[in-house]
Amino acid sequence: MIRAIVTDIEGTTSDIRFVHNVLFPWARQHLAAYLRIHTAEPAVAAALNDLRQEIDQPQADTEQLITVLYRFMDEDRKSTALKALQGMIWRSGYLNGDFTGHLYPDVLPALKNWHERGISLYVYSSGSVAAQKLLFGYSDHGDITALFSGYFDTHVGAKREVSAYQNIARQINLPASELLFLSDIRQELDAAQQAGWHTLQLIRGEADNESLHRQVNRFDQIKLELFSL
Ligand SMILES: CSCCC(=O)C(=O)COP(=O)(O)O
Ligand SMILES: [Mg+2]
Description:
Blueprint: E1 4-7, H1 16-38, H2 42-54, H3 62-74, H4 80-95, H5 107-116, E2 120-124, H6 129-137, E3 150-152, H7 162-172, E4 179-183, H8 186-194, E5 198-202, E6 215-216
Parallel strand pairs: 1-2, 1-4, 2-3, 4-5, 5-6
Helix pairs in contact: 1-3, 1-4, 2-4, 4-6, 7-8
The structure holds the ligand CSCCC(=O)C(=O)COP(=O)(O)O and magnesium ion.
């Protein structure tokens, strides 16, 4: 029986085009100015220090780090430091109403239904926990954060690593056999499955014929009974 559902964001609850055509360009546009102004703020300084460690350049100055961050953004690197900084930068965009967090129309009714049935809901994304809370706190349908019991980012591990799902299961305090992971990316689902989780792939666009996971196109097609042991 499924007692908790953990969902990915990009390509699962939200359109990949919102992330790549709205969020990422907005962060890129504001990155340099934001870092130059806020470089001494504790959260920014901590993320920049994490980045220095990631690239093994303890002496790198802010301008050098900005260059690295542009490269990371070009490569869509799931760097924990980059993701932390993007989350900080997006904050003013959400607060000013420059954009709202995209949700596919089938997502909110399903989340509400599961929540009402007593199933705990969690998020796991490469985006930082702060960025996840912003997306769901300022979503197209308003603040829906009350539906979620918790959030996980790459601090638990990368999304294609089995250990990340083991860590999440430990923190949720449920056996893997009672957990369902929703994602559009086969390799993430492979890792969750290897950790003993149930898995379901969202196909929002192109088919994935190499996947061995159950697939649906929308949340309203998800039948939790199929995952009962
Ligand atoms: C929290 S929204 C921004 C998502 C993001 O930065 C990203 O890299 C997408 O990663 P995901 O793990 O959701 O595919
Ligand atoms: Mg995804």
